[in-house]
Design a protein that fits this description.
Blueprint: E1 5-6, E2 9-13, H1 22-30, E3 33-37, H2 40-47, E4 55-58, H3 65-70, E5 75-77, H4 85-96, E6 97-98, E7 102-106, H5 113-129, E8 135-139, E9 144-148, E10 152-155, E11 161-165, E12 173-176, E13 196-197, E14 202-207, E15 213-217
Parallel strand pairs: 1-6, 2-3, 2-7, 3-4, 4-5, 7-8
Antiparallel strand pairs: 8-9, 9-15, 10-14, 11-13, 11-15, 12-14
């Protein structure tokens, strides 16, 4: 059995919009592990030239050939077309590191709406395959997105925008701490529980049954 490397925090950098804000850049600079998805390594090294990523992974179809010839860090080509590069990076992370308490996706959003929707929808899949319960999140300059699979609570600060999305139209959610309660809302369309606002520092959600849910804090 392959021995995994202990680490507390990891960042997976995608090909979306690279953040300018202090908080997402702090998450990158302080991470124990940095993995880049394919051509995201080019942008990452432009902003963080003094630290090579721990791995660059993907089908390598969008990295300039001249860059690959000069690049001296580790990289792994995975030709599997059944998963996107973000999932390849996530799978490589959990296969090689253990003890993670936080997994942050940077550059999962922006540039292309189809990539954004696909990348964010996968967060609930990642949460479902992990035995432990690390924080899983996508962080950008404008929002934090994280999955919930069952009832729980989160701290977001009074006045913050809160949107709830689920692909399960049978799910019912009782809430406290939101300006507009979600009890009685039929979640048969994505917009139904979006654009809410926290009226307390802590928001509590009670699910009628376990289900994949994305929370967007804006």
């Amino acid at each position: 059995m392959k021995r995994k490397i202990p680490a507390e925090s990891a960042v997976i950098i995608g090909g979306g919009t690279f953040p300018r804000g202090e908080f997402p850049r702090y998450l990158i600079s302080s991470a124990d592990v940095v993995i880049c998805c394919d051509s995201a390594v080019v942008t990452y090294l432009r902003h963080f030239p003094d630290r090579l990523p721990d791995m660059v992974i993907g089908d390598m179809d969008s990295i300039p050939a001249a860059f690959l010839r000069k690049y001296k860090g580790p990289w792994k080509q995975v030709a599997d077309q059944q998963t996107n590069d973000q999932t390849k990076a996530f799978n490589y992370l959990i296969d090689n590191w253990c003890g993670l308490s936080r997994i942050t996706f940077i550059g999962a959003v922006g540039r292309r709406a189809d990539h954004t929707i696909a990348n964010l929808s996968l967060l609930t899949d990642y949460a479902a395959v992990l035995d432990s319960s690390p924080i899983i999140e996508s962080v950008s300059d404008s929002e934090i997105v994280f999955p919930m699979l069952e009832s729980g609570e989160f701290s977001c600060g009074q006045g913050r925008g809160v949107s709830i999305f689920t692909p399960d139209p049978t799910l019912r959610i009782k809430s406290s701490g939101l300006q507009w309660p979600t009890e009685g809302v039929r979640l048969d369309s994505w917009w139904k529980a979006s654009l809410n606002r926290a009226c307390c520092d802590i928001v509590k959600l009670e699910f009628s049954h376990p289900a994949p849910v994305l929370i967007v804090l804006s």
